[in-house]
Design brief:
The complex is a heterodimer of chains A (114) and B (111).
Chain A (H helix, E strand, L loop, with lengths): L4 E3 L2 E4 L5 E6 L6 E8 L3 E9 L2 E5 L6 E5 L5 E5 L8 E8 L9 E2 L3 E5 L1
Parallel strand pairs in A: 2-11
Antiparallel strand pairs in A: 1-3, 3-8, 4-5, 4-9, 5-6, 7-8, 9-10, 9-11
Chain B lengths: L2 E5 L2 E5 L4 E8 L3 E9 L6 E6 L5 E4 L2 E5 L3 E6 L8 E9 L7 E2 L3 E6 L1
Parallel strand pairs in B: 2-11
Antiparallel strand pairs in B: 1-3, 3-8, 4-5, 4-9, 6-7, 7-8, 9-10, 9-11
Classes of the chains: A mainly beta (114), B mainly beta (111).
Chain lengths: 114, 111
């Protein structure tokens, strides 16, 4: 059974650029959540999508956005990148809305902003 | 404000030396408490979910317990392969579907 797939795994961007990260959940999972992980702040919730609808959003600026497609794949976008956006971005998938025993995380996308 | 605090930040053990990691939480209602293990460069790996005070769950050398204010992850006779960062997270009663994570305890087990 394939796990949660995140692409790209590593990327370097310049301040002011934008970036799009992709997440393919476990087959059959309809919920996708995104988290940002930094050494200083730890893991922080960005947003959750279930059946193409955003169900919950964390305390991040509007530069951070996301969407979910009909096949449950999800993308998140960060516009006007800042140095502080350098982080590991993690995607988690689960069958239904909210975390549970079936929630699985991907390996993450490492973003470096220079 | 909902908050999760883990202690200690780092813990070094000798192989076979049992210990406990602490996760204290302040939330408006608790719908669930989760323990994850994270290896360097990897995503968190699910270990346990606890829902109510008094609940306990075990998996190999790990045992998680829950009270009304904190959770413990007990590690019995650890091995070097248990070295990782252990993360605690809660889902509060009124926070929708977001997990609130602690900053983790980094465990190093030497042989």
């Amino acid at each position: 059974k394939a796990g949660v797939t995140q692409t790209p795994r590593y990327l370097i961007k310049t301040r002011g650029q934008q970036v799009t990260l992709s997440c393919s959940p476990i087959s059959g999972h309809r919920s996708v959540s995104w988290y940002q992980q930094t050494p200083g702040q730890g893991l922080q919730f960005l947003f959750e999508y279930f059946s193409e609808t955003q169900r919950n959003k964390g305390n991040f600026p509007g530069r951070f956005s996301g969407r979910q497609f009909s096949n449950s794949r999800s993308e998140m976008n960060v516009s006007t990148l800042e140095l502080g956006d350098s982080a590991l971005y993690l995607c988690a998938s689960s069958l239904g809305p909210g975390p549970g025993q079936g929630t699985l995380f991907g390996e993450g996308s490492w973003l470096t902003v220079v | 404000e909902d908050q999760v605090t883990q202690s200690p930040e780092a813990l070094r053990l000798q192989e076979g030396e049992s210990s406990s990691l602490n996760c204290s939480y302040t939330v408006s209602g608790l719908r669930g408490l989760f323990w994850y293990r994270q290896d360097p460069g990897k995503g968190p790996e699910f270990l346990f979910t606890l829902y109510s005070a008094g609940e306990e769950k075990e998996k190999e050398r790990l045992k998680a317990t829950l009270t009304k204010k904190e959770s413990f992850l007990h590690i019995t006779a650890p091995k070097p392969e248990d070295s990782a960062t252990y993360l605690c997270a809660v889902i509060p009663g009124q926070a929708g579907t977001a997990l609130i994570f602690g900053k983790g305890t980094t465990l190093s087990v030497s042989s």
